[in-house]
Amino acid sequence: MARRISGRSHGDPRSADTRAKVKDDYRPSRDEILRYIAENPDRSGKREIAKAFALRGEDRIWLKDLLRDLQDEGLLTKERKRLTRAGALPHVAVLDIVGRDADGVLLANPSEYTGAGSPPVIAIRMSRGASGPVPGIGDRVLAKTFPTDDPSGPAYTGRVMKIFEKRSEAVLGVFRVLKDGSFRIEPVERRQPELIVDKEFQNGAKNGDLVEVEPARASRYGLPRAKVLAVLGSLTSEKAVSMIAIHAHDIPHIFPADVIAEAEAAKPAALAGREDWRDLPLVTIDPADAKDHDDAVFSTPDTDEKNPGGIIATVAIADVAAYIRYGTPLDREALKRGNSVYFPDRVVPMLPERISNDLCSLREGEDRPAIAVRMTFSAEGRKLRHSFHRVMMKSAAKLAYPQAQAAIDGVPDDKTGPILDSVLKPLWDAYAVLKRGRNARQPLELDLPERKILLKPDGTVDRVVVPERLDAHKLIEEFMIQANVAAAETLEGKKEPLVFRIHDAPSLAKQESLREFLQTLGLSLARGAQMRPGQFNGILERVRGADNEALVNEVVLRSQSQAEYSPKNIGHFGLNLRRYAHFTSPIRRYADLIVHRGLIAALGLGPGGLTQQEADRLEEVAALISATERRAMAAERDTVDRLIAAYLAERINDTFDARISGVTKAGLFVQLPQYGADGFIPVSSLNGDYYIYDETARSLFGERTGKGYQLADRVEVRLLEVAPMAGAMRFEMLSDPKPLPGSRRSFHKAKGRARASQSRFGPRGRRR
């Protein structure tokens, strides 16, 4: 008979007496396994579960089948190689403290929660032996979470690892001058009240300016007052729009005085202790408008007779660790930012300009410290060996992608002409070799063009373009991937702690959802837990050039997991690599700086290596920089949405070609391919039929006709309403519904599901 688990965090979950009496054919119950996984989130891999319950031989096969059944039933989900209870919080999470219970214990909710129902409640406690500030209501903290057994109390306890800096009380708003000459602040966020500004606190603001204000205490009567702290620019300028995103997402954008002082006091690194590579003609190839250059490349054929057709590829990366030492003001600020954030006309950098654009930028013709990797590949693109070096280099040329590509295509200029045969052609020869290796590896190959917003001098949108994807881009990308792989392999081989860049395979639930969708198109996806990118590539190849190519690419993309940072390696599914770490951009990513420090320590390359104190914090650091990366992506996306919405605000009632980018019960999201902007069409505005949502087919179809609209359909729409500050647009559908692929089968299945739902719920959504 199965027994309950003791609740300890490690080792065999049974007591010593129980283990002494247990029979050889002991098998734990489903509840015991679920409880063990909930209580041991760090030790919930299949092997660890088997070890905890002393399962061997055929019992391990039984366990594998049981775990798969629990996943199919939705009771477990697989994240990396570990199993978690469905809807469970991650073991390390960012929490917002929202109140106290009757005993005064702090209570928190996860700051990001995408699960069903209300977010779980976490009872907060401090780490053992912690000193310094104590968290309070309103604070945001990083904490380890542990599930509890008390059904009447909080679902989790949280042990605080870090308290984030409190947000400033300043708010954003639009400065308005009323007809009577008085001043008001129109809030950017709806939850903020309108504010009055007295003339002595105007601080130079003019009508229509975006301003940062400090609210005063609200009086008993009338609107609260405020004073203008800073004028951020005109509401119509991009600077103001990006500042809204910076403020809304709590992105640090002003360097503290001690950080600037440390950066300005930094001296150029010396040659002593480094290899002198200044005669090697390394070149940088970047976007034409790049201000910092953190990678340079060079290649030659391998002269070893044992490696015919092989090449030696060299990648040199700015030695940021030479200037940013662990625990200094520069380091603390870099970790807080996590990464640089890129907007259409500004960059919020991770490091001050003195470091990022000067001392660490691999400028043409100037001595710069670097950490370089020299990699030897066979003619088939298989890496044979590599070595890391701490060097002093001097870039032979600063090139832009189109400039380098033009030289290879037969149109060299004054800069590329002299190095065409000696530098550029060997680089392209090396790329041909690396491409063979990439083709053999078969990473995920999604065809999703990226758009770039070009601005006018006044900061407003000029046009949106899709930059051409050149071989020059692919060359640098492949060189960087191989350098990242070499860094991960070296550190793992030396057993040096590091932060991996990991990307999990799609969950079983997402695989099944994708499989059901593909069946509606007459396509099949093999079953099995061990998915490979090549299986997705086969699907994408079958629809290449077909009408549903964009649709399938979009759905395959949405089935993928999100890449993140972790000190525990599970490999990178999308790139189809066992070991991968970010090494090539330490100017703009803190993860790369950690890897640099690890290489310095592991290989004995001098000062600035990873310290034990830093190594002990890698789990916390990985969670932080994964969060700052998501924050940056959201801020960049919000800014683009607001810019495009403002740009189209003058085109109300115009018609546009669009593509359906999302389907929900509430309606259709449509994207304007020309601009990359999204808007919404409410289902209530779709005329001529009653529309039913089919989740499997990603479609809305008419109950009477069976015709409808599906994800990725090309349609014509009319713009009805724009809210520029929200980045929101509402459209009207002009295109008629069409017969859907597999519409008869999909129609009857979805209609049956809709009727089943209506039988459980009343006409207003109330459960019967």
Automatic annotation (TrEMBL):
Record key words, sorted: Cytoplasm, Exonuclease, Hydrolase, Nuclease, RNA-binding
Entry keyword annotation includes Disulfide bond: no
Compositional bias of kind Basic and acidic residues: 9-26
Residue stretches of biased makeup (Basic residues): 745-754
EC number from the UniProt entry: 3.1.13.1
Region (Disordered): 1-26, 734-768
Pfam family membership, one: CSD2
Enzyme superclass (EC): hydrolase
Domain S1 motif, first and last residues per copy: 653-734
Top-rank taxon, per record: Bacteria
Keyword Hydrolase found: yes
Gene Ontology molecular function: any one: hydrolase activity
Catalysed conversion reaction: Exonucleolytic cleavage in the 3'- to 5'-direction to yield nucleoside 5'-phosphates
Subcellular location(s) per record: Cytoplasm
PANTHER family: DIS3-LIKE EXONUCLEASE 2, RIBONUCLEASE
Task of the protein: 3'-5' exoribonuclease that releases 5'-nucleoside monophosphates and is involved in maturation of structured RNAs.
Family according to the record: Belongs to the RNR ribonuclease family. RNase R subfamily.
Protein name, entry field: Ribonuclease R
